[in-house]
Amino acid sequence: MTFTSQLIAERSPLGSRASVKEQEYLCHVYVRNDGLAGVVIADNEYPQRVCFTLLDKVLDEFSRQVSKMDWPSGSPATISYSALDGYLSKYQNPRDADPMTRVQAELDETKIILHNTMESLLERGEKLDDLVSKSEVLGAQSKAFYKTARKQNSCCEIM
C-alpha cells in the first residue's frame, strides 16, 4: 500500500483531490498547491467526504508543526508528527468524527421511524374504516328491527 500511495500522490496534479480503487479499498489522495500530499486508504463503505476532511485537517496541522524544509528530505522515521494517531483514532467511526455524517445518520433513523409510524397509521385507518362500515350495517339492522317491532306492536292493543 505504501508503493500505491506514493504512486498515486506523485501522479496527482497540485491542488487536486482524487479517489482510486485498489483491490477492495479506495485510496483517497489530496495534493495541496504547496506540494504536500496525503493519502487515506479506506474501505468502500467509509464516506469519501469524511476522508477528504481528515486529509485536510491532517495536512494543515502537519504544515504548521513541521518545517517546510523537512518535507522533501523527511521520512516517517525522521519527521516527528504525533497528532496523526489522535486523528486516526478519532476518525475510526465517521459518525462520531464528522457532524454532517452524524446528522445524516440521525436523519436516516428519523426517516425509518417516520415510515413505521405512517404504516401503523395507515393500518389504524383501515381498521377504523372497517369499524365505520360495521357500525353502518349495525345501524341499518337496528332501524329494520325497530320498524319490524313497531309493526308487530301496532297490531295489538294494550288494555
From TrEMBL:
Database matches in Gene3D superfamilies: 1.20.5.110, Longin domain
Residue spans crossing the bilayer: none
GO MF assignments: SNAP receptor activity
Subcellular location: Cytoplasmic vesicle membrane; Golgi apparatus membrane
GO biological process, one term: protein transport
Domain V-SNARE coiled-coil homology: 99-159
Record InterPro entries: Longin-like_dom_sf, Longin_dom, R-SNARE_YKT6, V_SNARE_CC
Entry-linked Pfam families: Longin, Synaptobrevin
Record has Coiled coil as a keyword: yes
GO cellular component: a single term: Golgi membrane
Keywords for this protein: Coiled coil, Lipoprotein, Membrane, Methylation, Palmitate, Prenylation, Protein transport, Transport
PROSITE patterns: LONGIN, V_SNARE
Residue ranges occupied by any Longin domain in the UniProt entry: 1-88
Membrane topology type: Lipid-anchor
Major subcellular site: membrane
Free-text function comment from the UniProt entry: Vesicular soluble NSF attachment protein receptor (v-SNARE) mediating vesicle docking and fusion to a specific acceptor cellular compartment. Functions in endoplasmic reticulum to Golgi transport; as part of a SNARE complex composed of GOSR1, GOSR2 and STX5. Functions in early/recycling endosome to TGN transport; as part of a SNARE complex composed of BET1L, GOSR1 and STX5. Has a S-palmitoyl transferase activity.
Entry's family note: Belongs to the synaptobrevin family.
Protein name per Swiss-Prot or TrEMBL: Synaptobrevin homolog YKT6
Organism: Zosterops borbonicus
